């Protein structure tokens, strides 16, 4: 049986006077009746802190689940966005360099030409979608000669201009100092850039 007690703040609610009424329904830890306890939680700084902690404790499992779900979704989203961006960029390169000879060996263009990277996409993440770093290349050079790098080096300055080539070399040096982390926003910027360039060439 709960003993009747005077409503008066105690412990963390000691600074809260309470209504002083005798009641057998009280929050014994704080010495307050239900009405005063509710007022303590909403009207005092100490009460607000206690309430926030209680809310967080209840919400924590849901928040952790939502965070994990968001990270999983973003991870899947980034992978999909990378693939879409790669497909769009490579298609643009093949169209841009249509009828141009292979950047490496100089053989005549054909429908099987690919988008070949000067600095490999897997090793130079920041240059993965740099249009100066990607040029039309025959399958033999791209797939079987590992890009035919020496001849690529000889021909690239003439294809993109010496100034662009020198800047590309500098960017490759910078790339070694940090790892590029792609997000949905900058991948969207690249796709928008490609769409704009396609519209300009129509």
Report on the architecture of this protein:
By secondary structure, this protein is mainly alpha-helical. The chain folds into 2 domains: 39 residues, no CATH class; 125 residues, no CATH class. Helices cover 55% and strands 6% of the residues. The protein contains 6 helices and 4 strands. The strands form 2 sheets. A two-stranded antiparallel sheet has the order 1-2. The protein is rod-shaped and about 100 Å long. The chain starts with a strand and ends with a helix.
Give a topology summary:
Blueprint: E1 5-6, E2 22-23, H1 34-43, H2 45-96, E3 114-117, E4 134-137, H3 139-144, H4 149-160, H5 162-175, H6 184-200
Antiparallel strand pairs: 1-2, 3-4
Helix pairs in contact: 1-2, 2-6, 4-5
Low-confidence stretches: none
Strand order in the largest sheet: 1-2
Question: What is the helical fraction, as a range of percent?
Answer: 40-55%
Q: Tally of extended strands?
A: 4
| Major beta-sheet overview | 2 strands, antiparallel
Radius of gyration (Å)? 33 Å
Query: Helix- and strand-based class?
Result: mainly alpha
- Cα shape: rod-shaped
Overall mean pLDDT stands at: 86
Please provide the ordered H/E string of secondary-structure elements. Answer: EEHHEEHHHH
* Count of individual helical segments: 6
- How many structural domains can be distinguished in the coordinates? 2
Portion in beta strands: 5-15%
Cα-to-Cα separation, first versus last residue: 87 Å
């Amino acid at each position: 049986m709960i003993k009747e007690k005077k409503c008066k703040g105690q412990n963390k609610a000691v600074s809260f006077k309470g209504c002083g009424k005798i009641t057998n329904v009280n929050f014994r830890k704080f010495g307050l009746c239900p009405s005063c306890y509710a007022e303590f939680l909403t009207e005092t700084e100490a009460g607000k802190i206690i309430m926030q902690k209680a809310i967080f404790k209840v919400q924590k499992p849901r928040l952790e689940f939502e965070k994990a779900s968001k990270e999983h979704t973003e991870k899947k989203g980034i992978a999909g966005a990378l693939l879409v961006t790669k497909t769009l960029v490579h298609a643009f390169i093949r169209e841009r360099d249509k009828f141009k000879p292979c950047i490496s060996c100089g053989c005549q263009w054909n429908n099987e030409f690919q988008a070949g990277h000067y600095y490999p996409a897997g090793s130079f993440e920041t240059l993965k979608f740099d249009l100066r770093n990607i040029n039309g290349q025959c399958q033999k050079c791209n797939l079987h000669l590992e890009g035919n790098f020496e001849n690529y080096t000889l021909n690239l300055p003439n294809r993109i201009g010496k100034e662009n080539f020198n800047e590309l070399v500098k960017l490759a040096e910078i790339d070694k100092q940090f790892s590029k982390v792609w997000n949905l926003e900058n991948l969207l910027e690249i796709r928008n850039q490609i769409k704009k360039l396609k519209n300009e060439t129509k």
